[in-house]
Amino acid sequence: MILIFSIAMEQRLEDAVDVVSDMLGNSMAPDLLTYKTVLEELCRGGKSNDAFELLEWKKRDLSMGQKNYRILVNALHFKNRD
Known about the structure:
Elements: H1 2-9, H2 13-25, H3 32-44, H4 48-59, H5 66-81
């Protein structure tokens, strides 16, 4: 989480998405805060399409409850409006 947060805060958004993708590819599910951080930074960086794509990846994660999915959607919605 700290690695992804640091990368995202440095606006190295592609690298942050790559780390999340690598985690998913190795059966290591990022937590909700990790997704939220990357989604927010993607929206701040004007990459809302990439944020929605990342959200779709997370949607496929059956372990994520409906409540957590709504939290991510709401965060993405409000950050996209900024």
